Structure formats: structure tokens, C-alpha cells
Amino acid sequence: MQFTNYAKTLTAALSLAVIAGCSSGGGTQDGEMGGMSSGNTGANAQGMSSSQGAQGSSMGQNDQMPSETTVYFDFDSSNIRSEYESVLNRNASYLQSHPDTNVVLEGHTDPRGTREYNMALGERRANSVKQYLTIQGVSASQIEVVSYGEERPAMQGNSEQAYAKDRRVVIDY
């Protein structure tokens, strides 16, 4: 009976090790993961192309701080949209190649909802991005999470366009 429990525990541990290995090895380069998502063709082409632009090699891409550092969310959601996976992969690649660099993930919301709810939602969004980056291999010690809720709007106004810009996480280097 004890051997059966030991075997089950060992099997579960091996399964987790395989899953962890697959998840961290899946995004070795920006283009690989970006090619799987079809949301933003401009970003995918930029990540996969090595002959366009000033950085000719993948080493150059990892040495340069990513220019896109904002991830937008749907209303009342902390799920990362597939179109932003390539943005996060580029940031993860940069952070992995620069282990001394730290970032602050700033979670924001639109003004709808109570102050407490928006603070919690901003934190959930920032933690979603943190989880994504750590799965890609970034050390959790490089990441700090802050929620601003609705306090720092990106765009003034009460339109859906303004609200969409407010629902975001900013990766602050």
C-alpha cells in the first residue's frame, strides 16, 4: 500500500517536471511563440525577421530593451489576450538575458467599479503578466507588482475608447 502511494507521488512529480520543462522551453525565441498567435502580424514579422531593421541577429534583439511594454485587457478581465503574447515573449527574452534588470508591473483599470474592486482587478492583471513571464523563465525576484486601479488613466474621457486604453498593465523598467 505504501509503495502504491510512493509510486503515485513519483508519477505526479515527474508529470509536473515534464510540464514545467515543456512550458519553459516552448518560447525560446520571440518568433516561435508569435508565429502561433495570429493576432498581430506586424509584431510577428518584426520578431521573426532577421534581415530588416538595425538589429540583424537574435543577440541584438535580446540586448535591446523592448519598445512595447503595455498589455491591454478586455473589460472586467485579467486574461492575457493572445495578441499580446509576442509582446510578453520579447520582454521575457530581454529579462532572461539581463538577470540584473528588475521591472515593476503596473496594473490599471478603467473608472467603472468601486475603488476596492479596481485595485484588486489591477493587481490580478499585473499578477497574470507576472505569471506569464515567470512561466517563460523570468525570475520572480526580478518582478514587482503594483496596482493603481483607476488612479492613473491613460486617456481622459468617458468613452469606450478611453476605457480600453485604461485597462492595461505597463511593464516599467
Number of helices: 7
Q: What is the CATH T-level topology of the domain at 73-172?
A: 60s Ribosomal Protein L30, Chain: A
Largest sheet: 4 strands, mixed
- Tell me roughly what share of residues is in helical segments: 40-55%
Give the uncertain stretches in residue-range form.
9-58
The SSE order reads HHHHEHEHEHE
**CATH homologous superfamily placement of the domain at 73-172:** OmpA-like domain
Strand-pairing-aware structural class: alpha+beta
Question: Proportion of β residues?
Answer: 5-15%
Keywords: Cell cycle, Cell division, Cell outer membrane, Lipoprotein, Membrane, Palmitate, Signal
Function: Part of the Tol-Pal system, which plays a role in outer membrane invagination during cell division and is important for maintaining outer membrane integrity.
Family: Belongs to the Pal lipoprotein family.
Subcellular location: Cell outer membrane
Describe what is shown at a glance.
Helix content is 50%, strand content 12%.
Verbal overview:
- With 173 residues, this protein is of the alpha+beta class.
- The chain has a domain at 73-172: 2-Layer Sandwich (60s Ribosomal Protein L30, Chain: A), CATH 3.30.1330.60.
- It contains seven helices and four strands; from the N terminus they run ααααβαβαβαβ.
- The chain has helices at residues 2-25, 30-36, 41-48, 58-63, 85-97, 115-135, 160-166; strands at 70-72, 103-108, 143-149, 168-172.
- Strands 1-4-2-3 form a four-stranded mixed sheet.
- Strand 2, helix 6 and strand 3 (143-149) form a beta-alpha-beta unit.
- Helix 2 (30-36) packs antiparallel against helix 3 and helix 2 packs antiparallel against helix 5 (85-97).
- The longest helix has 24 residues, at 2-25.
- It is elongated.
- Residues 9-58 have low confidence and may be disordered.
- Residues 30-66 are annotated as: Disordered.
- Residues 42-62 have a biased composition (Low complexity).
- One of its GO terms (biological process) is cell division.
